[in-house]
Amino acid sequence: MFATKSRGACPINMEFRQLGNSGLQVPVLCFGAGTFGGSNEFFRAWGETDVEEATRLIDICMEAGVNFFDTADIYSQGLSEEILGETLRRLPRETVLISTKGTFPFGDGPNNVGSSRHHLTAQIEGSLRRLKTDYIDVYHMHGFDALTPIDETLSTLDQAVRQGKIRYIAASNFSGWHLQKSLAISERYGWARYVGHQVYYSLVGRDYEWELMPQALAEGVGALVWSPLGWGRLTGKIRRGQPLPQISRLHKTAQQGPPVAEDLLYRVVDALDSLSAETGKSVPQLALNWLLRKPTVSTVIIGARNETQLRDNLAAVSFALNAGQVARLDEASQSQIPYPYWHQRQFPDRNPVPSSFRP
User: What is the phi-psi region of residue 259: left when phi exceeds 0, alpha when psi lies from -120 to 50, beta otherwise?
Assistant: First the structure.
């Protein structure tokens, strides 16, 4: 499914994909509102977007056919949700999709954290209030809570779905067995099941492919990709043999993300630079488009601190890498596969690897 928008810098045909094994259609790009607010040093490194600038960015997204917006309760301790809610209240509610998350600490006290019935009930109500909406389209468990029984978490989410406060539920940052056990419990009791999994996946972080991607294919769980530019490493500002710009959030954000071996990083950057010279597309556009060519990916969450960054990222859907170009980036970004996956891949007739290219 495609939505055509002709306003803005250039026409964009926005593709919509099914979110896992659900009936919900989502645009292949989703706008992440983590840059809204900037209430502390950690989030100021992401951005300090206020209501006025957020309104402009969301208008650009809507013009391009991106009507899916992602945030979380802990982003600037609720301020991101408040700003997003304020900017979206101008639009008919049925024209937008809102995603938010709960689990991590929100306030003081031992019960203001986790995926317990106590905490989730309070956080769902708080998110609805801050977002100024009656329902949340996709609600994520922001991380796995090993201290709360899974059936307590899922029964709480199922009740919220039945009450109409949540439309769909999703996981985020789960391991394979965490997600599989959750799916089994939902099936056992007939409760709402996770239809999406928000995951870290990029050309410099392909761990998702080892176990979670085959599981997603088998179980019908769509990937919502966060930090698709590898914590800012694939924005085009990093080059082999060159220092970072003096003024750049990379000095902070790259340190906050997972470590990436320099050899891997520069192999990927070199391959992206080579393709950029051939295609005329920017490094971020190529890195995002590579993800859109991968199986199980329902949507890729992009962020932007300003209009220029946003328009560049949106243009990632204006072309399609071919199988040969994807293979070149695959080769440049290949890293050592951990056990038991390297062993299983010695027997592809028994353990087939998902296709590396999605037309």
Answer: beta
Instruction: Tell me the catalytic residues.
Output: 75
* Residue 349 maps to a domain: no
Distance of CA 142 to the CA centre of its chain: 11
Total count of domains within the chain: 1
pLDDT in tens, 248-269: 555 555 666 788 999 999 999 9
Amino acid at 79: L
- Residue 280 region, left (φ>0) first, then alpha (ψ -120 to 50), else beta? left
- Helix orientation angle between 176-189 and 212-219, rounded to the nearest 10 degrees: 20
* Burial 324-354, CB ≥16 within 10 A → b, else e: ebbebbbebbeeeeeeeeeebeeeeeeeeee
* Residue 356 forms part of a structural domain: no
Q: Please give the pLDDT value at position 241.
A: 76
Residue 53 token pair: 């600038």
Q: Rounded distance, CA 225 to CA 26, Å?
A: 13
- Does residue 351 belong to any structural domain of this protein? no
For residue 270, give its domain range: 2-344
SS (H, E, C) 195-220: EEEEEECECCECHHHCCHHHHHHHHC
Of 157, 229, 179, the residue nearest 200 (C-alpha): 229
Specify the CATH number for the domain of residue 280: 3.20.20.100
The reply to whether the predicted model has a pTM over 0.90 is yes
pLDDT 10s digits, 97-113: 999 999 999 999 999 99
